[in-house]
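Re: Re: token formats

Sure, here are both.
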Amino acid sequence: TKEDVVRLKQRRRTLKNRGYAASCRIKRVTQKEELERQKIELQQEVDKLARENASMRLELDALRAKYEA
């Protein structure tokens, strides 16, 4: 009957939508994991550069003291 066809189409649409929603959830989780990994890498780079900066400042201070004396 016509009602069965409508019900079948609705069921098909619901199942398709469920699949799309699952794909979106997986994609969102994957993107979040990738962003967290990038965040860790960038934080490590910032820490490394901060250490290098501190070391160079000490070296600069030592050179200034040497040539001012």
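Second one below.
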Amino acid sequence: MPKFKVSQEINLPDIPFPFRWIPSENAADDIKLAVQKRTEMTVERLCWVLRNAPRSNSIRDYISSFDVSMVRSNLSTNLNGHNPLFYAVASMHVDVVGLLVGLGGDINVALPSRPGLSIPLIAFAALEGWCRLRRHQGTEMIRKLLALGADHELIPRDMWEDYIRAPAKLAPPGALPPKATWCSGRIRIALAKALNLTDRYLLFTAEEYKSPSRLQSQILSDTQSKSLFELPFYVVAQRYAIERIQKSLMSHIVVQDRRPLVLIFGGPSGHGKTELARQIKDLLNVSFHNVNCTDMKFNNDIFGPHAPYKGYEDGSPLNNFLADRNGNRAVVLLDEFEKTSQEVHHTLLRPFDEGIYQDRRNGDNVGCKNMIFIMTTNLFDDEITAFYNNHLAKKSHTERKNVNGTIYRELQSRLRQKMRQRFGVPLAGRIREIVPFFPFSPTEFPVVSHKNILKLSDSLYPPPDKDNKRYLGKIHIEVVDEEAVCQNIVYDSQEGARSIERDIEDKIRNGVLDLYLDRDDSLENIAKSPLMNMEVTIEPNDGDRKMIIVRDNGTISAPREFPLSF
């Protein structure tokens, strides 16, 4: 069957070695030498570095050795019609793309593929990930581009608005949207195949959340907090929680409160409480400390003993973390906080109220007004689940957005009353916000399923390596009919994402493992062979029931192409 060579449509030409010395065997050595010699940056050299650097830190070192004005000048220059950002995206180094966009790179730049066809950077990321068999990296690149403000309307709306369903090969009747006139014919067919379920969900998310205002951007930039508005792209669902967290963090930053920000995340396990706390840490680029509160019964357990009692000079992990970050912003996660005692609650009153803590080791005052304390708890599970069942479970996504705010305020009132009963009025009064995390909807849990399948596929991609005890590898997972597969992963609202992860391990990972171990081959030979192509699909089983099947579909190599009859 003839092929549509989409790899040629998005192909970036190779670049001759651009430096004035004989190239070494390792590109990283050449880049290091270019930094040492302070050779002038040209667009050829920048694109060569982006194309050939084995690791992102080599690229960052190279870029940071030049004045910002020189980097910006080269980012606005094309190499034979190709902007350097396309080489950055093709490298699949997400952090490098973020760096270049921050330095002035045009995130909506287009690739002049051929006369009449210019492919936007975000579409290029999807096509590149599909062709090169790096779906997970392609998706992470799309996530970053959208989080940084890429225009989601460059992709036709009909391809992502109903994100659960795979987009149609052909555009619906009528004129294409003005920003998406490029997307027709064979390139539309290719993009329909390349956009996976998570990609489509991210495009849908970009429609849902508005960008920060000019004033918000200025304030957040000045406080190194602008990435706060990227939060919706890094957590599946939990729209209400994200909005409450963003508002609380924005208020804390703008007002410059003398007290730390204290939040409590409530809701059933496995629905993103800990994940969201870690994402806040990552996006704000701050330190993080996790306290398991299961055994925190006495104030010594959490902060260490006072002098002169034995062990006071050692402090405690939390005591030392706060002291080491005196006055700086950081995130402290107090996990399973409902298991703490009244003595621990009393110990937290002063730092939560005054933004000052006394180091147990030496008595020095420690500033903690910039700290973000996040408590997680299952204390409110019954109330939050009942609210979801009564007010959200049977509503469409659009209807949920229009739920009366009074109903949410009533939930907050009930949760705060229960919090006062359990933690006492003094501590409850110092907690700024109770953030409820709801169960996943029927259109949300398949996204969580797909996210975990992508992670599994990415973990199986590298070759096996006996020396490093890596026995499973050189595998590509291809999901046929993502909608059906991801909807047939078991989701238990009491266990959340953990139930999804367990079912994927049982039905997909173990299916892959069985086929892999049946090979009459050696690890050394597998490491040198093409990727095994494991196909995950759905088959009928016992009437209306469906069963997830894993098949060995031979081998596959990059770049792959599209059959013209697709």
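The CA atoms of residues 116 and 182 lie 8 Å apart. Residues 238-436 form a domain with the Rossmann fold fold (CATH 3.40.50.300).
- S.
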